[in-house]
Design a protein that fits this description.
Layout lengths: L1 E14 L3 E3 L2 E3 L3 E3 L7 H13 L5 H4 L12 H14 L2 E11 L9 H12 L6 E6 L5 H4 L3 E12 L4
Parallel strand pairs: 5-6
Antiparallel strand pairs: 1-4, 1-7, 2-3, 5-7
Helix pairs in contact: 1-3
Bound molecules: magnesium ion.
The site of magnesium ion has 5 residues, from strand 1 and helix 1.
């Protein structure tokens, strides 16, 4: 049996923060604000996985009011999400995601993000597709105030059905 999930996230770009997307640190003068490291790509992926498994969303499992998750590496949250799926007998078939960012250019970082996320998902990098788009100057993303991400995943029960 296969199940599909969708996830979406956005974080504000502010001074004095590291920019981390897909678990990869990106050289930029601003970073994403959040209770965690603000990795909107990884958060979108977590939501897609939880959605596919019928397990709600990232906020219902990792509260942004819980001090345990203050400044947490979002890849650790993704690891926890993968444990939840594994406990229920699910594995990931593939993931596809789009980063929405006006700046900086994401292309040089995409291979490292694919590798990092694929490892976390327990699949080969070619099963993780990442795309990056600008917003053509429109809206909060276009003004460089935020970086957003959308993700879709397909999961399957580990035993063939
Ligand atoms: Mg988030």
């Amino acid at each position: 049996m296969h199940r599909i999930g969708i996830g979406s996230d956005i974080h504000r770009l502010v001074e004095g923060r590291r920019l981390v997307l897909g678990g990869v640190e990106i050289s930029h003068e601003r970073g994403l604000l959040g209770h965690s490291d603000g990795d909107s790509l990884t958060h979108a992926l977590c939501d897609a996985l939880l959605g596919a498994a019928g397990l709600g969303d990232i906020g219902s499992h990792f509260s942004d009011r819980d001090p345990e998750y203050a400044g947490v590496d979002s890849m650790a949250l993704l690891g926890r999400v993968m444990e939840m799926l594994a406990e229920r007998g699910y594995r990931v078939e593939n993931a596809d995601a789009t980063i929405h960012a006006e700046r900086p250019r994401m292309k040089p970082y995409i291979p490292a993000m694919r590798a990092r996320l694929a490892e976390a998902l327990g699949i080969e990098p070619e099963r993780v597709n990442l795309k990056a788009k600008t917003a053509e100057g429109l809206g909060a993303v276009g003004r460089g105030e935020a970086i957003a991400a959308d993700a879709v995943v397909l999961i399957a029960a580990s035993t063939a059905e």
